[in-house]
Design a protein that fits this description.
25 strands; 5-stranded parallel sheet; 525 residues; alpha/beta; 17 helices
Length: 525
């Protein structure tokens, strides 16, 4: 019987199960910062550090530098701290390019996270800061087999909402059935012994829900059409969807089919800050509030022969601020438009690294119909239209009202929807959303949308590297340009995650402090 070697079998299995991340860890490509108090030796008294941006990275830098005695000044262009770590609640205001300022009109106590909404259990440093800063956390339900897949199109299952559990279990069943038959008939190249093959087949039976003949048949795994109950109510199980129907309906398309639990950072358990992710930013802000200058828009960054000069403007006019060193945490598309005297390599890197287009809309409903009518508690519905994803709230279960994220889209889809006015975004979200949830029409109360790529002080969601920019531009920004250091999620392998901001902040603070400490040693000599 032709076989696949154990090495190849495990290698391919690792790829399918999202093994790339652990491999990168093993190769030293990802180095998580220690999840404990950052106890650096020495002090920075007498040194003034100017930090650009009061997002998580900027405030964490100031928080850790303050512990060491440094004087810090944080310049923040907005009237709020937190950057992309922002929870929209009643009274939140927002303005995008070519659009008026809008104010959220949600009920008190309700919110949605316009930026990061999830904390992986393996992001130890993020969890550490939640603990150190006294921010309570709760479980975030990222994986919900009761949510839906919805594919527009002309297939047999198109334009119908299909429970994720049905799609997952049917595909898993058919795939394992084919693999079990192939092994049983000796049609795979393999060095596996007969005993090895039997063990794999037993695994496939369990994994795919196969019967004794290695055939996939529907089971309770994919849910019931009539739930079991008391008396003569054993429950009814529908027949599985045909594999051909699943394929023709687009439910196996690579940009649609999603198995989140296989992704390292999306594996349960995941967490969220109680009361909104902005609670993390607010806790940091309390620690460094005296250092922050709000509504201070940076217009120029100038390295001096000794020190650095930052030019910024506010309501009172244009100002210059000098310091010993600077930590710049501004998103690169924003930094690209600020006057500077950086080296050519650094300027090129700033211009070449791309950022993703992305947007979200929060929809408030007078009734949590997704829970009451459809038994969906948290999780994500996936679509192949411009909604991309619908997120159900993982807080206030069984409450009266709720806000769900009506779309969370990326790239071309986000650009298309982001180009619409606020009212047209709402109209689009309701039009497509009611195809899945007809309750939208009766229960909808209000919306608030954010397109990060159209937001002045962001101009994108997070950094996106390709093979070339990761190899050539990323290393350039890891080093300081004279007295200016760079920090943020864009300078890690944890792009888009809050962990990236925390990891980068610690790395930058350690490098800057080592430089100051070395200078002082040299001076004493």
């Amino acid at each position: 019987m032709k076989t696949i070697t154990r090495r190849d079998f495990l290698g391919k299995g690792a790829m399918l199960a999202g093994g790339a991340y652990p491999a990168m860890m093993a190769l030293g490509l990802l180095r998580p910062a220690p999840a404990h108090a950052f106890n650096l030796q020495g002090d920075g008294k007498g040194k003034h550090i100017i930090i650009l941006g009061a997002g998580l990275a900027g405030m964490t830098c100031a928080y850790e530098l303050n512990k060491l005695g440094y004087q810090c000044t944080i310049l923040e262009a907005r009237q709020r701290a937190g950057g992309r770590c922002w929870s929209i609640r009643n009274g939140s205001t927002h303005q995008e390019a070519d659009k008026p300022t809008v104010t959220a009109r949600f009920d008190d106590g309700l919110y949605f996270n316009a930026g990061p909404s999830r904390i992986p259990h393996n992001h130890e440093l993020t969890l550490h800061y939640c603990k150190e800063l006294g921010v309570p956390i709760q479980v975030y339900n990222n994986v919900n087999e009761g949510a839906y897949y919805f594919a527009e199109g002309k297939g047999p299952l198109s334009n119908k909402k299909v429970r994720a559990r049905e799609v997952h279990n049917d595909i898993r069943g058919y795939m394992t059935e084919m693999l079990a038959k192939s092994i049983d008939h000796g049609s795979l190249d393999s060095n596996l012994t007969k005993e090895d093959g039997e063990k794999i087949i037993e695994y496939l039976r369990a994994e795919g829900g196969l019967d004794i003949d290695k055939l996939y048949k529907a089971s309770a795994r994919r849910g019931y059409t009539e739930s079991p109950g008391a008396g003569d109510k054993p429950g009814k199980i529908a027949d599985p969807h045909k594999l051909a129907d699943i394929i023709r309906s687009g439910l196996m398309d690579p940009d649609f089919y999603n198995v989140a639990e296989y992704t390292y950072e999306l594996q349960m358990t995941m967490f969220q800050a109680v009361g909104g992710m902005d609670q993390i930013a607010k806790a940091l802000e309390k620690k460094v509030a005296p250092s922050i200058k709000m509504s201070a828009e940076v217009t120029a960054i100038t390295n001096l022969p000794e020190g650095v000069k930052i030019t910024y403007k506010d309501a009172q006019g244009v100002h210059e601020l000098t310091g010993d060193m600077c930590i710049c945490t501004l998103p690169l598309p924003v930094l690209s438009n600020i006057s500077n005297n950086f080296s050519g390599d650094v300027s090129r890197a700033i211009d070449y690294v791309g950022y993703i287009s992305t947007g979200k809309i929060g929809l408030q409903f007078k009734r949590r119909f997704w829970e009451e009518d459809e038994h969906i508690y948290g999780g994500i519905t996936h679509t192949n239209n411009d909604l991309t994803q619908i997120f159900y709230p993982s807080y206030d279960y069984l409450g009266k009202k709720g806000i769900l994220i009506g779309y969370y889209n990326f790239n071309e889809k986000a650009q298309k929807i982001g180009a619409l006015g606020y009212a047209d975004r709402e109209k689009f979200a309701l039009e497509k959303g009611r195809l899945i949830h007809p309750q939208y029409d009766k229960e909808f109360e209000g919306s608030f949308s954010v397109s990060w790529h159209k937001t002045k002080y962001n101009l994108g969601g997070w950094a996106v590297y390709n093979t070339e920019t990761r190899k050539t531009q990323y290393p350039v920004l890891l080093k300081p340009d004279k007295q200016v250091y760079f920090a943020g999620e864009h300078l890690t392998y944890l792009n888009a995650w809050m962990a990236g901001a925390f990891e980068s902040a610690r790395s930058t603070v350690a490098a800057l402090h080592a430089r100051v400490s070395e200078q002082r040693v040299q001076y004493k000599k």
